[in-house]
Specification:
- The chain is an alpha+beta fold and 127 residues long.
- The chain has two domains: 54 residues, no CATH class; 57 residues.
- It contains three helices and five strands.
- A five-stranded antiparallel sheet has the order 1-5-4-3-2, with no helix packed on it.
- Strand 3 and strand 4 form a beta hairpin.
- Helix 1 crosses helix 2 and helix 2 packs antiparallel against helix 3.
- The longest helix has 30 residues.
Amino acid sequence: MLGYEIEVPKELREFMLEEAKETLLGQKNGAYKQYRYGNLHIREYDDKFLVHTDKIDPRKDPIGHLVYDAPEVLIGLACAVFGGSQIAKKFLNKKSKKITFTSGLISSIISGYLGYTITKKIKNYLE
């Protein structure tokens, strides 16, 4: 059931696996805690748990997890590096280093955000 989240309301039953470990790995999406148990990713909210299965456990294979479960993060990072470097090259000898750094940083943030957002929308559409 990859790609789908199951909602478990807290009022029905307090749900938590004893072996699940609290983690910082993964997007919290507004949850105040998140847990991992093997490939299971559990997000805890005030009134519910959202649970989904990842293809790869990021604690065992972080690169594999990014490639198969979170490619939008890799593409966002690649866009940030590429976008920032391209803008910095254009301004390198024409402006001051301060302007070059600032324009490179801003373009990195914008490029990374756009790459991440577009890839996330495509990923969600394909699921």
